[in-house]
Amino acid sequence: MQQQQAERVHFFDAYRTIIVISVMALHAAMSYMAYVPEWWYAINPEKSLFFLFWVLVANTGNMPAIFFLAGYFAPRSLEKRGRMLFLKEKFLHIGIPWVVGVLAFAPLFAMATWRSLNLPFPETYMEFVRTIWLGPGYQQSHFWFLGVLLAFLIVYTVVARPGRTGGAARSPLFWLTAWWAVSSAAFFLSSLRWHPDLWIPLGPIYFQPARIVSYVFAFYLGARAWRDGWFDGPRPGFGPIALSGFATVAGAWSVIVLAMNFPVKETLLLKALHGMSHAFASLAVAVFFLLLCRTLFDRPSHLWRTLSEASYGIYWLHQMILMPAVYLLIPFNLPVGFKFVIALGGTYILCAFLTIHGLKKLPVLRRMF
What we know:
The chain is an all-alpha fold. The protein has helices at 11-30, 49-81, 83-116, 125-133, 144-159, 172-191, 209-228, 238-261, 268-296, 302-329, 336-359, and strands spanning 200-202, 205-207.
């Protein structure tokens, strides 16, 4: 995903950094939100309705934005390296960290879930892995993203056409509207069989059926954005930013209202509204911050570039530090908001330090991160 300095799309450095912080903030907020799921890894006794609203909104646009970014940088990387070298790099850069994360650390998160649910533990760790993690307690924690992204990149390598689009191309508005329609329909159809928050394995891949189609389309749109030159023109003016900001508020409001008034979507109408609302909020949030970053940060910045290039390592590390931080803060008599800021801020600073001075410096790890 590295570009030559002359070709670098500078505002994507800020966008990638903000999106990764958003993912971290989502995970931190889950520990402090009202109605926190019983299976969550670390649960603070005092809870806040504010963080529930935060989670409802933050859990919409961040992952589509990350897949969009991955799709945007995939074509130029593929053209530069060729198919075989591209795949080799992705297996090294994504595949190995995914396998290590899933095998070495995901069982520990499953143990945290088992403890939160007050379920009995087997006598040994290996027995837990064999009977629980590889059975009813299977999960990949936040490493699921790497497995799904690797699958997307493998498929993209096979089907991609080289070069940028020549001649007329459909407008971004057409494709964004199509993404909303397809994502809404996929979310609705999935909810007819599965709960929208359900995770399922498909071979080694672990994902949410309700959202996987939106991720596929977001990755495709990222690749199309590069091929069609969506960001070759002038920066957006006040109008598009204001409109996307209004859409973000409307989308967030619809998600919160539906969740608070209809926590269980039993009718077909409510299921359809849930899918449309979730997809609209996802689109609005992702586009609003994209336009904002393009307007404010479309210039060279050493800080944004450093944090952007560390974002992958920060994402890979964050849950291993964030959840223990939340747990260690539980005994302290502090306001929930202070605990959230300390846990999130401390985790980000430590993850950034470990990535910049560790993962990106050590001889073997720097080739991966």
